[in-house]
Amino acid sequence: MISKRNFTRRDFLQTTGGATAAGFFMGTSAVTRAQDSPNERPVFATIGLRNQGWTITSKTTKFADFAAFADVDANVLGAHIEKLEKESGQKAQGYNDYREVLDRDDIDAVMIATPDHWHTKISVEAMLAGKDVYCEKPLTLTIDEGKLIEKIVKQTGRICQVGTMQRTEMDHRFLKAIALIRDGRIGEITKVTCGINGATGSPVIPAIDAPEGLDWDMWLGPAQKVDYRALPEMREGYGGGVPLYTNCHYAWRNWYEYSGGQMNDWGAHHVDIATWALGAGDTGPNKITPVSFSLPVDYKDGYPTVGDQYNSPTKFEIHANMPGDIPMVITSEGDNGILFEGTKARFFVNRGKLAGKPVEDLETNPLPEGAVEAVYGGPVSQNHSANFIESMVSREQPISDVWSHNRMLETCHLANISIRMGRELKWDPTKREIIGDDEANAFLSRESRKGFEINM
C-alpha cells in the first residue's frame, strides 16, 4: 500500500508542531452513522457544479449536508440548488464567488469540480481556511502546483482527497487487477500500456459575447484574459446543453490554458492505476519519450501560435521509462484501458471489463481471501466520497492522497511538456526537475493573472 496512506494526524502534529492540526469534527463516529443521524453529518459545499460537480455531490448527500454551492454560471448554480432540494431535501445557499464559501465557519469540507486551472488556488485557500478538500482530478495544471499542495496539506493538517474514483469504485475491478499482479498471476511486469483515447481538433472558433449569467472573467480566473469563443452547434450527450466548440464549458479540456487534454483527463485515471500496480507511487519515470504525436495547431517554443482553435494533442504515443526500466506506453490508439504484460501472462482492464487468461483462471484458482482489501489498505469504502469522510474522521490521508496522485500526474505533465517541446525529456524523480533543459523546466510552473494569485 502507498506509504503516504498512513500519513496520520500524529505525523501532522510532528510536522507542524501541533499549531494547526485539525480537530475531529465527528469525533470517532463511524461514517456509516452519518447516513442516519443528523448530528453525525458533516457540512459540505460544492464549488463548480456542472457535470462531475453534481456527480460527486449526489454521491455524498447520503453522508453529508450541503449548505452552500458556488458557480460562476448563474444558470448552472440556480438549477443545481433546485435539484439538490428536490432530490435530497437539502437547501444550499448559492454564491458566484467561492471565497464567500470559504469564509463560512460552518463548512467542514469543500468538493471542487471547477475546470483544472482553478483546482490549486481553491484547494490551497480552502485548506488555509480550515476546510478539508475533495478535488476532482487532475489535481493540478503544473508540477510545481502539486508541490505547493503537498506543502499546504502538511502545514495545515487538512485531509485532501483526489477524485480518482477508479481506486474505490467501478466494481473494484481495478483493485482486482492490482491484486492479480501482486499475487504473481502474470509473473514479473514487463510492460504496461495505457490507452486513453485520442481527441479532435476544432474549426476556427469566433470570439462572441459570453452567455447571459456566465461571469467570464471569473471563469478565466488565474488564466490569462482572452475572449469567450463559441460556435452555434450544440453538444449532445454527456455535457449537453453547451456549445460543441468553445473555450468554456466542457470543451475547456481541449485547451492547454485550462487543462492537459486527454493526457491529464483520462491519463489521470489509467496512468494512476498503472503507477500503483508498478509500486511507483513514491517516485516516477526517469525519461519521457514522445514517439509520435499530432497537434491541431502550429507551435513555437512550446506555445500555440493561434488562440482560436483547440490546442491539445489529438494523437500520441508516449514512452515513460518507469522504475526497473519497465516501459509504460501512453497511447491514443486502441481500447481505452490498461494492458498489463508480464513474464507469464497478460490481461486487460477498463471500466467495462477485466479480461485475459489470469482472469479466466480465477474460476478454479481464486485470489486469496482479503487480497483486494490488502491492495486498498483495509475494507473498501462504500464509494469514493465515503472514503473521504472516513479520512476526515480518522485524520489519515485517503486512498487517493496528494502524494501518490502528484507522482503519477508528473508522468502526464511531463508527457505534455515533451509533446509541446517536441523532444525527449530526462527527469530527476528525486529533485523533481527536468535534467539539462531550462526551456522545458519553465513549464513546471505557470504565472497567475494579476488579481488571481493564490492567497497565502
UniProtKB/TrEMBL annotation:
EC number: 3.2.1.49
Domain of life per record: Bacteria
UniProt-listed InterPro entries: Gfo/Idh/MocA-like_OxRdtase_N (IPR000683), Gfo/Idh/MocA_oxidrdct_glycsds (IPR050463), Gfo/Idh/MocA_OxRdtase_bact_C (IPR043906), NAD(P)-bd_dom_sf (IPR036291), TAT_signal (IPR006311)
Gfo/Idh/MocA-like oxidoreductase bacterial type C-terminal domain ranges (all copies): 204-453
GO molecular function, one term: alpha-N-acetylgalactosaminidase activity
Limits of the Gfo/Idh/MocA-like oxidoreductase N-terminal domain: 90-163
Keywords: Glycosidase, Hydrolase
First-tier enzyme category under EC: hydrolase
Cross-referenced PANTHER family: BCDNA.GH03377, OXIDOREDUCTASE FAMILY PROTEIN
Protein name as catalogued: Alpha-N-acetylgalactosaminidase
Organism whose genome encodes this protein: Rubripirellula tenax
